[in-house]
């Protein structure tokens, strides 16, 4: 399920379940190239958050009561992996700190795309009807 709209203007980017293992995922993405992910968010002079800190994502995206309640209603469980997809981090320790302190796994968009294209090359282009997978298949064909 993608782009799940919730009360109070909240939104969940992606909820997924691995059909083979039953493992559940809550995925959020922040693919900003201007602000690298850091441990603590920064703010403008007027006090507006840049949404570039793990602390922001924990509080507003993963552990917000509205989000937590909605995920529990959908998954019927509080056991799921929290994944944050980003473009880059301020320093590599942010990845370890996010997992250790908040239980949030940080993944990099470039790596995910590279892996998807490699997978599509191995499997061969299949004419997917999903827009994203079709784009990945096109990238894979371009690399042949």
Number of strands: 5
Largest sheet: 5 strands, mixed
Roughly what is the average pLDDT, rounded to an integer?
Answer: 89
Low-confidence stretches: none
Instruction: Name the helicity range.
Output: 25-40%
- The coarse overall form would be globular
| Order of adjacent strands in the largest pleated sheet | 1-2-3-4-5
Q: How is the quaternary structure best described?
A: single chain
What is the H-and-E element order?
EEEHHEHEHH
Number of domains: 1
From the helix content, strand content and strand pairing, which structural class follows? alpha/beta
Strand content bin: 15-25%
Any idea what the radius of gyration is? 17 Å
Count, helices = 5
Measured between the Cα atoms of the first and last residue, the distance is 32 Å
Short summary:
The chain has helices at residues 54-62, 65-75, 93-102, 109-123, 131-142, and strands at residues 2-5, 11-17, 24-30, 81-86, 104-108. By secondary structure, the chain is of the alpha/beta class.
């Amino acid at each position: 399920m993608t782009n799940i709209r919730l009360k109070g203007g909240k939104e969940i980017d992606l909820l997924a379940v691995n059909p083979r293992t039953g493992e559940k995922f809550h995925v959020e993405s922040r693919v900003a190239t201007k602000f690298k992910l850091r441990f603590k968010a920064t703010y403008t002079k007027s006090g507006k958050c840049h949404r570039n800190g793990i602390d922001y994502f924990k509080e507003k995206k993963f552990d917000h009561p509205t989000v937590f309640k909605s995920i529990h209603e959908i998954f019927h469980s509080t056991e799921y992996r929290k994944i944050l997809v980003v473009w880059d981090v301020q320093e590599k320790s942010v990845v370890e700190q996010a997992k250790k302190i908040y239980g949030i796994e940080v993944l990099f968009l470039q790596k995910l795309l590279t892996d998807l294209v490699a997978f599509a090359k191995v499997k061969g282009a299949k004419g997917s009807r999903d827009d994203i997978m079709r784009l990945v298949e096109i990238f894979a064909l371009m690399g042949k």
